[in-house]
Design a protein that fits this description.
It contains 21 helices and eight strands. The chain is an alpha+beta fold. The longest helix has 38 residues.
């Protein structure tokens, strides 16, 4: 007798990432800076006969008129048409590091879905080699399975340089120790749980807490000091003049301050009337299919370009409203503003806002800045840039013979209503390139 086969029907709920070609193209175009976009348009027009490039003379005239009203637009123009980015406001893109990571990823033979997420995370790694929590939180809102996220992070953390893609300092150092095969329990425990105590040189407390001698604690400190807390910085050129083309202008016109997109250099893309008529004339089946495909690609690109411009304008206008005192010259300090807050205000996904501002520059009367410069998490009730500005002023006015320690700076900031830790003061001071008190003492 033939065996009985039981056939049952059941429903299963599962999550899948489904991105249409239109969505992928829109995301790619949105993330491009002005130079990348110019090259992308040129290549698209070359490969698609349905697209025609039209040099817009009226845009050049508009730019000349704008330049006559805002003479600072010519400040720092390079021979190649770019603007010298302000020192201290240089964009901290990680093109070299992200390219290095992507190159390693391509050789791993990863499955398509995992590779796509790894590539995306590689673009989010900051200049120090870290993944920021705000960017990781945005993945949850994309409803990407946590198991897939964990696998992607693990893949990135297995790449060179050791310590890359860590979420915090402790994880960064642990990744390096694991790569080096470290077995010393004291070293590993301090890095996992007691870095703050080590930073404060609480050797006696650590000795009692871990049940080891103070000599062993100091030996562990020496071992930890040999690690690199900034694995991504090796990919940053030490001294390089950076030329950029601003994507956005903030200018003062008759009705106040306005956001203008810098599209004056871009050619206009049009659908060729010739090929439109050719499709209507009902050519042979093969020709008609080819032309319809190219027409869909052309319309998709035009839509993506339109969406990019609209999203970039909305984000820049929101930045202008939030940081109006800065643009009007009333204050050099920025107000706290996060990508998540702006996304909620504009009813956009945080990842959309992140792509929109990444690699983009804004030029105003004060100088040329990465668009990300205007976003920061609040520190002590004010923005990160505002804290750094206050630090600069305090250090500028200090007595050179008796420079202010980080602890003293911390107390002075608290008197101004900025409650942050001594460690945060040291971090911001280091980011500004200012040495510790001993290095600033004038004899």
């Amino acid at each position: 007798m033939p065996e009985k086969v039981n056939v049952t029907l059941e429903q299963k709920l599962r999550q899948e990432l489904r991105l249409t070609p239109q969505m992928v193209q829109s995301m790619e175009v949105l993330q491009m800076n002005s130079q990348e976009l110019l090259e992308y348009i040129a290549k698209a027009a070359e490969e698609n006969p349905v697209l025609e490039r039209e040099e817009a003379a009226d845009l050049f005239d508009e730019y000349r008129q704008l330049r006559s009203r805002a003479s600072w637009l010519d400040a720092g123009i390079s021979p190649g048409g770019g603007v010298v980015a302000e020192r201290g406001a240089v964009d901290r893109e990680l093109e070299s590091l992200s390219a290095f990571l992507r190159d390693q990823l391509e050789r791993l033979g990863l499955e398509r879905q995992l590779l796509a997420l790894c590539r995306y995370l590689a673009e989010l790694v900051d200049e120090d080699g870290y993944l920021q929590q705000e960017d990781m939180d945005s993945l949850r809102e994309l409803e990407i399975p946590q198991t897939l996220v964990d696998r992607a992070v693990a893949v990135l953390q297995s790449l060179e340089p050791a310590g890359v893609a860590a979420r915090n300092l402790s994880e960064c150092l642990l990744l390096q120790l694991q790569r080096q095969g470290e077995k010393d329990r004291t070293v590993l425990t301090i890095v996992k749980k007691h870095l703050s105590r080590l930073g404060k040189r609480q050797y006696n407390a650590l000795s009692r807490l871990l049940g080891v001698s103070e000599k062993e604690i100091r030996a562990a400190e020496e071992r930890i000091a040999g690690l690199d807390p900034h694995p991504g910085r090796a990919f940053q050129p030490a001294e390089q003049t950076e030329y950029v083309r601003p994507d956005v202008f903030v200018v003062e016109l008759d009705d106040g301050y306005e956001v203008l997109l810098n599209e004056y250099y871009l050619p206009r893309l049009l659908i060729s009337p010739y090929y439109s008529k050719l499709i209507e004339s009902k050519p042979d089946v093969e020709t008609a299919a080819y032309l319809r495909q190219k027409m869909r690609q052309a319309n998709s690109l035009l839509y993506s370009l339109s969406q990019r411009g609209a999203t970039l304008r909305r984000c820049a206008e929101a930045v202008l409203q939030h940081q109006k005192t800065f643009f009007e010259g009333e204050s050099r300090e920025l107000l706290p503003l996060t990508l998540r807050e702006l996304a909620a205000e504009l009813a956009l996904h945080p990842s959309t806002v992140s792509r929109c501002v990444q690699g983009k520059y804004l030029q105003c009367r004060q100088g040329t800045y990465p668009l990300r410069y205007f976003f920061s998490l609040p520190a002590g009730g004010v923005s990160r840039q505002a804290v750094q500005q206050k630090l600069l002023l305090l250090i500028r006015d200090e007595d050179g013979a008796h420079p202010l320690s980080d602890e003293k700076l911390c107390r002075l900031l608290a008197e101004q209503g900025v409650e942050i830790s001594r460690r945060a003061v040291a971090k911001y001071r280091t980011e500004l390139g200012i040495p510790a008190a001993a290095g600033r003492r004038k004899r």
